[in-house]
C-alpha cells in the first residue's frame, strides 16, 4: 500500500508545486483560515485515486469532511498543510496522508514538493526522509532544546485561546533554547522526527494536520501525547505535545506549571 500511496501523492505534488509558483485567488474559511483552488484540486485528485485504489478505507479530507470522526479504516488527508505559507510562497508546505487500520496508526506520508522532502513511515519499520532513515535528537537538556509551536486560527477571534498561546510561551521560552513557528504542523512533527527540533506543541489542530506526522515521529523514536502526558486522540484533544522522548516529561511539566 505504501508504494502506491507514494506514487499517487507524488503526482498530487505536481499540482501543489504548479500552484505554489502561480498567482492565487484566496478565499477565507474563517478570519485567519485560508483556502485556494489548489487545496481543493489536490484534495479532489487524492480522494478520487484513494477511493478507487483503497476501497476498504474511508477517505477523510480537510476541505470536504464534516464529520470530524475517524472510521476504523481511514485515510486522513491534508491536501496542503501550511496553506498560508503556500499562498505567501514560503516553502514550508506539504501534503499529509495518514492511514489508520482498525483505528490504529499504520502508514504516515508527508511530502513537501517544493523542497523535495518525502517523509514516510510504516508502523514497526522506522521512519525515512527521501529513503534515508531518520531519528529524533539525543538532546536531553531542556535548556538546550529547540522547540516549535503554532498559533491557532482561533487566536484572531477567541481571547481565551490567544491568552493561552501567550501564557504557554511565557512559561516555555525562558527555559528552552528558542521557539520556532514555521506554519505546518505536519512538517513540524517531521522536523522533530529528524532531530531538527527537540519538541513541538500546538492547540486546536485537526486530525489531517497531524495524522501522518505523528506516525513518522513515533517511528523515529519520538513521543506524542496530549497535554496531560496521556494518549493523544485525533479530533479529541485540545493540545498535541510531541518530542524526542527525552525532554517529554519536562515539556509537559513546563506547559502545565
Ligand atoms: C495549519 C497548520 C499550522 C497551524 C494552523 C493550521 P492548514 O494547517 O499546519 O501549523 O498553526 O492552525 O492548522 O490549515 O494550513 O492545513
Automatic annotation (TrEMBL):
Spans through the membrane? none
Q: What class of enzyme is it?
A: hydrolase
The biological processes this protein is annotated with in GO are: inositol metabolic process; phosphatidylinositol phosphate biosynthetic process; signal transduction
Single annotated GO MF: inositol monophosphate 1-phosphatase activity
Stored Pfam families: Inositol_P
Q: Which Gene3D superfamilies match?
A: 3.40.190.80, Fructose-1,6-Bisphosphatase, subunit A, domain 1
**Protein name from the UniProt record:** Inositol-1-monophosphatase
What is the originating organism of this protein? Poseidonibacter parvus
